[in-house]
Design brief:
single chain, about 15% strand, Alkaline Phosphatase, subunit A, 2 domains, about 450 residues, globular, ten-stranded mixed beta sheet, alpha/beta
Length: about 450
């Protein structure tokens, strides 16, 4: 009887062990099954940037911000290696891209030791995945650069552009290229010639995107008519751009899709710029554009739910955006923001060009306010005064024109979403992706 009981218990234990082993093996296989990785970085996009965008859009009867409803949302710390500094996009982007902390303004390396950090994009490419990078700002600006470049300071645009040439990544799309020095147009043209020599099809016109992604092996897509002097796509609120982040994301998915896998990073770079300017209406339009790009990834996810992960995060918060203002107390009147339908930047440029000597006028063409403005020549100050007054009436305020050290949200949907929980550091995303991809 005892012997029978012993064998019965032994059989049960072995059976449970086999089940546990099988579960662990299946879990490991699931963890390594991800083949399609979408990483969306809303530069400067804190919790309030996304939330106020959602509130405003719904109040105007538009679709809200989709990624706010992702099944996993965690808080993320953003501090850089410098103990006394709030991070910038260089250090913040490096942490996300490589899993390493670095110094303020460093890209893909430790400036003190000279050690270079390999990014997830570089590792994925080495493992045979296709790689794409998209940004609404220049493709050698800080955030996209963190995925292929290794320089001590983020403003070394010429070196960064040269390292882009060597990356071999299949898809670049969005803004143009920044260059330092004189004869910038000529120097920029040389970089584009070098891209062609490296096998890239360089496209400067939206109408030619579809043809390029059907025939080329590597592409650099932009639309020069949609770029401002900073080689970034015009603000969406100004209605000057012929392209959007969603257009580039849709093209990238078509171009990169393959059975082995791909990594695509998409940056909403001008969420940050609008927040630096303390321009909430402009920021909302940029966040809406960013969200539409995420929705392109969601369409792909619906076809490959067991092989895809979508991560939406930020490198830092910008501006210290607050829903609430002293004089409006407990009231939010976000519908008032609809009275602004050009960016601060556009308004300032328009006024400076149209009225170079100053002018006596009532500004109602682009901002619908009844403020009389007499003999004002400082258009930057005047535009700030007007737009800030509108924002304050709406119940919106800002604490700074710089970055803040607040935690930012990370939203996750797809394979491995349960790997994110609680409060994480910005280096954590890289580590999870490495595990999920099995690298």
């Amino acid at each position: 009887m005892r012997k029978s009981l012993f064998y019965l218990l032994l059989t049960a234990i072995l059976g449970v062990s086999a089940v546990i082993s099988s579960c662990n093996k299946n879990h490991e296989q699931t963890q390594k099954h991800v083949k399609y990785v979408f990483l969306f970085i809303g530069d400067g996009m804190g919790t309030n940037q996304a939330y106020v965008s959602d509130l405003y859009l719904k109040k105007r009867a538009f679709k809200g911000i989709t990624f706010l409803h992702f099944p996993t949302v965690v808080l993320t710390t953003t501090n850089c290696a410098d103990s006394n500094k709030i991070t910038d996009s260089g250090a913040g982007g490096t942490a996300i891209a490589t899993g390493h902390k670095t110094q303020f303004q460093a890209i893909g390396m430790d400036r003190n030791t000279g050690k270079k950090f390999e990014s997830f994009a570089e590792i994925a490419h080495r493992h045979g995945w296709k790689v794409g990078l998209i940004s609404s700002v220049a493709l050698n600006h800080a955030t996209p650069a963190c995925f292929y470049a290794h320089v001590p300071f983020r403003h070394e645009y010429n070196i960064i552009a040269s390292q882009m040439l060597r990356s071999g990544f299949e898809f670049f799309g969005g803004g143009g290229l920044l260059v330092n020095g004189q004869n910038r147009d000529s120097l920029r043209a040389l970089y584009f010639d070098s891209l062609r020599q490296k096998g890239y099809q360089v496209v400067f016109n939206r109408q030619n995107f579809d043809k390029a992604i059907k025939t080329a092996k590597k592409v650099f897509l932009t639309d020069t008519e949609s770029l401002d002097n900073s080689q970034s796509i015009y603000y969406m609120i100004d209605s000057l751009s012929h392209v959007s982040l969603a257009d580039f994301t849709k093209a990238a998915i078509k171009f990169l899709d393959n059975p082995k896998g791909f990594f695509l990073m998409v940056e909403g770079g001008k969420i940050d710029w609008a927040s630096h300017a303390n321009d909430v209406a402009t920021m909302i339009y940029e966040t809406q554009d960013f969200n539409r790009a995420v929705e392109q990834a969601l369409q792909f996810y619906q076809k490959h739910p067991d092989e895809t992960i979508i991560i939406v995060t930020a490198d830092h918060e910008t501006g210290g955006l607050s829903l609430g203002y002293d004089l409006t107390r407990y009231s939010l009147n976000l519908q008032l923001l609809a009275k602004q339908y050009r960016s601060k930047l556009f308004l300032n440029n328009y006024l400076a060009t149209t009225y170079p000597e100053g002018y006596n006028f009532k500004l109602k063409k682009f901002v619908k306010l009844d403020t009389n403005l007499i003999d004002r020549k400082n258009f930057t100050a005047m535009v700030n005064e007007l737009v800030d007054a509108l924002q304050h009436k709406a119940g919106i305020s800002w604490t700074t024109h710089s970055h803040t050290g607040t935690m930012i949200p990370t939203y996750v949907k797809g394979v491995g979403q349960d790997s994110f929980h609680g409060i994480i550091d910005n280096t954590y995303t890289f580590k999870v992706l490495m595990k999920l991809a099995g690298f």
